[in-house]
Amino acid sequence: MSGSAAISEGQASSRGVAMEQFSYDDAIVRKFLLMTLIWSLVAFLVGLIVAVELVLPDLSASAGPLGQYLSFGRLRPLHTNAAIFAFAGNALFAAVYYSTQRLCKARMFSDALSNLHFWGWQLIIVCAALTLPLGITQGKEYAELEWPIDLLIAVVWVAFFGVNFFGTLAKRRERHMYVALWFYTATIITVAVLHVFNSLVIPAGLFKSYSVYAGVQDAFMQWWYGHNAVAFFLTTPFLGLMYYFMPKAAERPVFSYRLSIIHFWSLVFIYIWAGPHHLHYTALPSWASTLGMLFSVMLWMPSWGGGINGLLTLRGAWHKVTEDPVLKFFVVGVTFYMMSTFEGPMLSVKSVNSLSHYTDWTIAHVHAGALGWNGFLAFGMMYWLLPRLFQTKLFSKGLATTHFWLATVGILMYIIPIYASGLTQGLMWRAFDATGQLKYPDFTETVTQLIPFYWLRILGGLLYFGGALLGAVNFFMTWKARPAVYDVPVYSAPALSAAPFHPEVAPESKLTNTIDAGKKIDTIMSVWWHRVWERKPALFGVMTFLAVAAASLFEIVPTFLIKSNVPTIASVKPYTPLELAGRDVYIAEGCYNCHSQMIRPIYAEVKRYGEYSKPGEFVYDHPFQWGSRRIGPDLAREGGKQSNLWHAIHFNNPRDINDKSIMPAYPALLTDDLDFAGIQQRVRAMAMLGVPYGEAVKDGVAEKMAREQAQLIADDIKKQRGPEQITATKKVVALIAYMQRVGRDINPPPDVPAAPAAPAAATVTPAAEAGKVSAAASTGAATSGGRP
Amino acid sequence: MRMSEIMSAMDLSVWPKAALIIFIGVFVIMAWRTWRESNSDMAHNAALPMDDEPHH
Predict the structure, then answer these.
(1) Over the stretch A193-239, which tens digit does the pLDDT of each residue have?
(2) In this complex, which of B7, B22, B35 lies closest to A558 when CB atoms are compared?
(3) Looking at CA atoms only, how far is residue A273 from chain B in angstroms?
(4) Chain A residue with the nearest C-alpha to that of B15
């Protein structure tokens, strides 16, 4: 691929106005577009693999020693990260680099920064692809990457991308910043804020860290981030893309520029409030989730306003849609945007959410958004850009049209069965028989019903993937027909200072028969000051930041500072060192991708899982593990329900306990040794966060306590004639210790003498007390029903 | 008195109301601003993507 040589920005004269000559850097757009396509194939392929794993749960274990790196819990974050940050990320960067230069009539601020951004971002994605299958994760959805990668993201996003973008705005030759640039500005500022504040951690080694937030606050911050990652990574930049590429493809201006302004400010201001709707009926305070719901419902207005604005841009050009695959992709993409943004607020209504949450309904919703909105816009943009970037004809319009139809049918075949699956699951969970008992008390029943839907999803995913493969062929063949050397057009435009523009002083009031104060009000009411903002990128950026920050602080400050939000529970103690290590295994295996740890105060849930979860139970949970999906049952009250041996057998192969289970087998947990030496550092990191570990932070104490508790559990398994290979050094023992502890603190069992023989100095610590709880749990009898 | 104590003493129902008022204020200002803009300026701004490859 040939890079476009930078043309020195010379000056010419045209009718007395100093003209500046410049060229655009399209080489960087070509790079980002290529990686958009490559990462789309990776994201879709990994998505297909995890979809197959749900119907063939022994698939990962059948891969032998490699299987532990390919389990659903480890690959699902890879799929979501690849789809969001690799596929959609590279697409939005391609859009930003192409359109920003042209809307500013200026080359990017720095070619070096452009390339640092490109290579830095690809490095981040490669790091994600390597670390996530290895189980190196923070355990927070869409924010899984560990702290060194988080630092790299911050540097690449702010120092390379942000500086380059705002530098380009500063040297632009077009006075007015087109609305697409507003959306890009909001994206860059808000994503930086979200990423930095949600990623605050205390490292416990190079590949391990703990969130500085705990429980309720961590959940709040995570979904403030998670929802707004959707808003400001998958929505605002793609709206900027829509406002630029839709008019280009339709060859007519946007339907209403006025509407686009309202769309922008309403969206930016409202979206940021909506995150708590992900936490309805959880231990999050009700006022916060209600606020999230109200603002989510309000999002209907700007979202549909923007969608209608996009579609009406085609006024008088609808006949082109029949012939042009680019417009086909755009029209269906915007339609999916409107559908998703109708559905999102609907799902945020508490009564609807009580049914939909934790079910496949959410999965269908996000795929309608990601594949329908982001995917179709990205591919539409790709087909529009290919002939322009490679300076040749698109290889095959027919192939592009076939891609469109495969993708359209594929996505429908994906989402329709998964909507049905979600409804089926939600209704089965809450079904009661005539005697007032759960109609489907065995959770496995509610999973096996979904398997036919899961097969249909695979078929739909295959079609969508097949369409993307056709896109790759079209891309490659178009690239092959490129010229030997790219033509680099040189453009000219007057420098900004020489261009005529509205004076940036307050206009005179037209009022005559009024006092001075009235004239001043009239002047302010003319809103001339907003036009000034729109010409000043830094000021505009600050105003955008304030809109986002004000909304965020209105929720964050009360959540963190009002004591009644998280009433403390005296019996809740920190995890023992071994339980903490087991919790880290739980996080590394990505168990939160299938299991929630949050029982909502809904009768069907209390009946199925036990007492509903309290905010005070999670004060030592760094990070929280409430989850967002129940492919398996909730585990919030798992402690003490099963014996240690039951857990050991279940982890080795769930089908040995329940032949219909779709949980992956984890034989490696029974053979891999736990890193006992690393426990001390982890306990100290938690202590730095305020967890009262007392004497356990002293050298060697945490490891000693962990080994003693592990020996108790291993002895218990041996006594029950469990597998010989399970010794006190294995990972599975730590995970069992954690599972036996989960959810027991609010109703601890009577003290038993089987507690681990902790060091004398540690016996008085809360950690040691918690150890007794776990030991008590180890004697729990197997009582509950089936589990997938 | 600590900040958390001050905050804890406040009525929680104030927050959603204040949020709503702030939003309405911002919305009204933006709607007013776009309404006051001249049609020719709006047409010019809307057409920017159509004229972004100026003369060679």
Answers:
(1) 999 999 999 999 999 999 999 999 999 999 999 999 889 999 999 99
(2) B7
(3) 9
(4) A554
Name, in order, each residue with C-beta under 8 angstroms of A324's C-beta and a sequence gap of 6 or more: A249
- pTM recorded for the entire structure: 0.88
Of B32, B48, B54, the CB nearest to A493: B54
Angstroms from A265 CA to nearest CA on chain B: 7
Residue A787: pLDDT over 70: no
User: By CB neighbour count within 10 A (0-12 exposed, 13-18 middle, 19+ buried), where does A753 fall?
Assistant: exposed
pLDDT in tens, B1-47: 676 677 677 776 777 777 778 878 878 888 887 887 788 888 999 99
Token duo for residue A416:
């329709």
User: C-alpha angle with apex B35: A166 to A182, nearest 5 degrees?
Assistant: 15
Nearest 10 degrees: CA dihedral of A150, A152, A157, A160? 170
Within an 8 Å CB–CB cutoff, is residue A526 touching chain B?
A: yes
Candidates A176, A257, A261; nearest CB to B30 = A261
Tokens representing A83 are 């789809």
State the average pLDDT over residues A515-520: 72
pLDDT digits (tens, 9 = 90+) for A342-356: 999 999 999 999 999
Q: Which of residues 232-291 of A touch B (CB under 8 A)?
A: 243-244, 247-248, 251-254, 256-258, 261-262, 265-266, 269-270, 273, 285, 287, 290-291
> Closest approach of chain B CAs to the CA of A107, in angstroms?
12
A566 contact B CB<8A: no
